[in-house]
Amino acid sequence: MHTLLLGVLLLIVQTPTRLDSTEVARVLSQLKASDSTVCELAGQSLANYGGFSGKGHDYANAALPMPRPMPTPMPMPGGGGGMAGVMSDVMHGGHRPGIDAPTLGAFRAVLRDDNRCVRNIAARVLGNHNPAGTYELFIGLLRDAKPGLRETGAIGLGELEDSRALGPVSDALGDAEVSVRARAAWALGEIENVRAVRPLGEALNDASLDVRLTAAWALGEIEDESAVPLLATAAKDREPKVRQAAAWALGQIESAQAVAALGPLVRDPAVEVREAAIWALGEIEAGSGVTVVAVGLKDDDSDVRVLAAWALGEIEDASAVEPLVAALKDPDIDVRVAAAWALGEIESPLALDGLKAAQQDQSGAVRRAASWALRQIDDDDNPRVHVHVRPRVKIKS
């Protein structure tokens, strides 16, 4: 029953012009009667989304789309593909036909439903397709006496990404209900307007972990340098997840002003915070961050050391050559490969001796990376030589 229900729901959204609003209403009615797990899975499938369960707020199963920092020196593949990619295309316009008016009406009919998951799915669908009157409808929900409806209104306004909602959604950051404040912070991140920086900065002091975490994420989405001092304070939060989110946001903003705030996080007790901080420093690419990142090359965790080597390669400053050459003797193969790659990115003759020695490494992957890096350095002055392929650095997930 659960599998059939999800299959029909996916079919409705993927091929909306082939099914009528009565069928949509029937499936939504079944979702209301199903358990919370099935409804949450439906929400994920519909929108490539983290669900609306509100149970915890982490990167693996988030109530809001909180991106996990991706510590890798290799470009991440885009699009995702598969059913999630199809649903994302449909929900966000994509290349598929839009949902017709009667079908949208079926979703609109459940916006005030008692089932939280169903009404929030409807808010996402309507927010992405934005039929006439949707903005006013969501504003009305945001101002409703019922907290659950206010949460739904905030979600819908975030999906609309309409700057007219900045004032009302910012006011919702002061709501008595935690879920409403968290969704309001998320909505401001979706709207991505610099005018939201100040109220989000205040939300970083919220008593709720969920609100502080989401506010930090939202500031990263806005990507405005004025948020750096605010996130520097959040980087000292008592909760590791907030510190991690603050580091990620600082990396998104890519301001050299953030180096000082990220420095202490490279030595944070939580490994995920150290990873996020080093990733952020690699994104910022400021020479002033070399000394800080180099600390990560001596971390107890090999993934952190790999990430530190990658970040130094991204910064491309010759002052990183010495610690990277030392890392060519790391006990972990992946660290040695990443260090060789980074030296190839920096292209400094100071690395020649170390890389030549690495050509004798017991690992073929390290030998190949060292040879590639040497070609990068030797051919730097030869305009006819172009190396297009970087050695792959394995990052454990």
Question: What's a concise summary of this model?
Answer:
With 397 residues, the protein is an all-alpha fold. The protein has helices spanning 2-14, 21-33, 36-47, 82-91, 101-108, 116-129, 134-142, 147-160, 166-172, 178-191, 197-203, 209-222, 228-234, 240-253, 259-262, 271-284, 290-295, 302-315, 321-327, 333-346, 352-358, 364-378. The chain has 22 helices and no strands.
Report on the architecture of this protein.
The structure is a single chain. By secondary structure, the chain is mostly helical. Helix 3 runs parallel beside helix 6 (116-129), helix 6 runs parallel beside helix 8 and helix 12 packs parallel to helix 14. 48% of the residues are buried. 60% of the residues lie in helices and 0% in strands. It starts with a helix and ends in a 19-residue tail after the last helix.
What is the strand and helix layout of this fold?
Elements: H1 2-14, H2 21-33, H3 36-47, H4 82-91, H5 101-108, H6 116-129, H7 134-142, H8 147-160, H9 166-172, H10 178-191, H11 197-203, H12 209-222, H13 228-234, H14 240-253, H15 259-262, H16 271-284, H17 290-295, H18 302-315, H19 321-327, H20 333-346, H21 352-358, H22 364-378
Helix pairs in contact: 1-2, 1-3, 2-5, 3-4, 3-6, 6-8, 7-8, 8-10, 9-10, 10-12, 11-12, 12-14, 13-14, 14-16, 16-18, 18-20, 19-20, 20-22, 21-22
